[in-house]
Amino acid sequence: MKRIEHSNHARFLTFSCYQQMPLFKNDAIKDAFVEQIDKARQKTSFHLLAWVIMPEHVHLLIWPKVSEFPASKVSWWLKRDFACRVITRWRELDASILENIQTPGGKHRFWQHGGGYDRNIVDGHELMEKIRYIHANPVRRSLVARPEEWKWSSARWYAGMREGGLTIDKAERPEI
Questions:
Q1: pLDDT (tens digit, 9 = 90+) per residue, 70-99?
Q2: Which pTM does this prediction carry?
Q3: 3, 23, 152, 168 - which has most CB atoms within 10 Å?
Q4: pLDDT tens digit sequence for 87-140
């Protein structure tokens, strides 16, 4: 897939776990990925507009600094170290999940191969649509009754519950 990035576009990203397995079922793993988002954000300086961690995938709405850190580099910073840390820990524990995430070549994968879903967001209407979509994910899956009840989502921030979560950046471009 060819990605075309523009500095005046937000990016809607989706990363799926290997073979759509619920590798984020464990709350500690979801919490660790929240920390990873924060670390990657410090390293690559992207603006975070919305996010959610689901049992088998992650959605992010970001505004990357395209010239220095396009979405592909942001994705790399988000996914690579995190996957290595989790798989290393599972090896230390001799976790049974290891046999389920082993590729035919014998490697262990946390993430589905490839870059995931990636889309330019070009206007304010589409931006708001994606934010609502991201926040509704846990409700659609019957994990919670209301979006702000899901701890691993920016819905809590948008609902005014600012403690313990990631800070959301304001979209500063007039195009959005």
A1: 777 888 889 999 999 999 999 999 999 999
A2: 0.89
A3: 23
A4: 999 999 999 999 999 999 999 999 998 666 667 787 889 999 999 999 999 999
- Give the type of residue at 134: I
Domain total for the chain? 1
| 173: in domain | no
User: Which phi and psi (to 5°) does residue 106 adopt?
Assistant: 95, -5
Q: Secondary structure of 52-66 in the HEC alphabet?
A: EECCCEEEEEEECCC
Structural domain for 123, as ranges: 10-158
Looking up residue 47, the CATH number of its domain turns out to be 3.30.70.1290
Task: Reduce the DSSP state of residue 11 to 3 states and report it.
Answer: strand
Helix (H, G, I), strand (E, B) or coil at 112: coil
Q: What is residue 5's predicted lDDT score, i.e. its pLDDT?
A: 57
